[in-house]
Amino acid sequence: MIIVILLVVFILFGILIYNSLIGKKNQITNAFSAIDVMLKKRFDLIPNLVEVVKQYTNYEQSTLTKITELRAQASSGSLTDTEKASLDTQLSTAVKGLMVTVENYPDLKANTNFLNLQSTWTESEEQIAAARRTYNAAVTDYNNAIMMFPGNMFAGMLNYTKIDVLETPAEERKNISAKELFNN
To answer: What is the 3-state composition of the chain as percent helix, strand, coil, each rounded to the nearest 5?
Structure first.
């Protein structure tokens, strides 16, 4: 009788851990989907931003072309999660460069359409940052569950492996020099 009770307790304990691991893995998928939705919103803003800037700039075509090409790649729909993250970084860098370039065009900086787009862009970036934090929290929770006892025993049987958190690229971690910004 004691053996049967211990076996039932062990099975119930196993079911709880299994369900917990599945739930944590699904949280990661859900968090990455939120990032995907925010990136789509950002990609949808790009054509409008490019068109407004084109009206005021003549010689910034290479920047606009690069942004348009990156958006086209992002819209292809055949990217892996890693490729999406890499493309996101490239696009962020390109648009930041565009925003710095805009400083040379006072009429553009005063344009209502541009100001609205810039505000929407900033809001979108903040939402993406929040979604990344949520994703990284879900990944950390999952990684802890599969690395700590007793979850590690079940994770090994289910072939669950560690997932990397999203990290800020090195070029975005550098200190910004105000002197360099204003000397360009």
So the answer is: 80, 0, 20
